[in-house]
């Protein structure tokens, strides 16, 4: 039996989005205690009583999540962000000491598993991670600290329909990779570099809606078929530049160049945190002789192989959420008896990666009366991908130690530039007060007040025109056909 300890009870199905209520007594204590000062989280083997090392089908997965939310009402909450084409719920479990309400000043983070239906190791790892958290909260200081200071949202399967037609023991191939309509969900997001003409799928739309409502600071998407932590960008502007030249197109195909974000230092760091805490990943051993070996177990996505419509680029460019892709098993769907080993290899990585949400700068943007300003845009100077404050005026940005300047703009306020220092030991708290901007005389009398930002955010524009609108970049022509063909071949070989 897989779930011996199922607790009968009501389903705690809550639409948490609507419940981000502000509790005025909230104190920001996120940085009082530091993850770095805590003892390492203890290795933990989940109790087989609650969760065996076997694959759980959708019904079993649902039962486990419901039982856990009934058993740990103070630490977990279960909600669905929508349904797959075949009507399976896309369950998200929140694990936190405040499962039902956002903690003002503290970050929300997430993991997404099984976007490719035939890569289910991550799906099982995430169930074990939930079990680990709830059963260690009272005994492990690190876990307690993490759950007291972070809301962790876990979507174990984004593609339950694909999983349902996948076969255990199948290490390669595309059977079950796609959703029920044959779409690759990790090619189904709006793309920063190229027009993505793929019709939006219900699973993708649910995730887009989800991340538009909760400001996630950090995210990991779990895959299989390789052993590497891969960071944005997954796509590249280069093919646009090279498209006209045959030689260039071939060159692009065969030696994909890195496509680096302005936060490359941070993305490399985050990837290394995962790889180095993993039992094997940082050794950078190739899965098979025909597949690449990755130095330190990390790679830039586009340098591995470029793709259009990936989820990590979307998270980062549209919402400033730092998502990386975690390829955690050479075999896409290994036999169940290997799951225990995968858990041992990944558990420390899975936990320590999330704690990285507490690195960098965090704070609030206020108006002169001390009220929070929602949707203020913030850009770290030199890093053109910006981000916005929440309705409580909060913001977070993961940054490595150093000296930085932030540019803060909001409609109706004078823009400000603020300098700050980041240290290794704890996040920097930064509250910014914006002054109302002065009306420009004679312009639009009686209308809105005008102001001139020092510099409009260059790249971050949810809902605004995508950058490809300006530079025609449709993927046409024989060489892009070849390169697309090769890329889909790659993606079937790799994760
Ligand atoms: C920033 O504002 C928050 C929310 O009002 C407050 O709790 C915190 O103490 C402030 N931090 C600093 C460094 O002023
Ligand atoms: C949940 O928290 C409340 C209030 O702190 C406490 O009374 C209750 O016993 C807790 N429930 C469980 C199942 O731990
Ligand atoms: Zn994959």
TrEMBL record:
CDD domains, per database record: M14_CP_N-E_like, Peptidase_M14NE-CP-C_like
Pfam families according to UniProt: CarboxypepD_reg, Peptidase_M14
GO biological process, alphabetically ordered: peptide metabolic process; protein processing
InterPro entries: CarboxyPept-like_regulatory, CARBOXYPEPT_ZN_1, CARBOXYPEPT_ZN_2, Peptidase_M14, Peptidase_M14_domain
Protein name from the UniProt record: Uncharacterized protein, isoform D
A GO CC term assigned to this protein in UniProt: extracellular space
Residues of the signal peptide: 1-26
Cofactor: Zn(2+)
Gene for this chain: Dvir\GJ19439
Domain Peptidase M14: 54-357
Keywords, ordered alphabetically: Carboxypeptidase, Glycoprotein, Hydrolase, Metal-binding, Protease, Signal, Zinc
Family: Belongs to the peptidase M14 family.
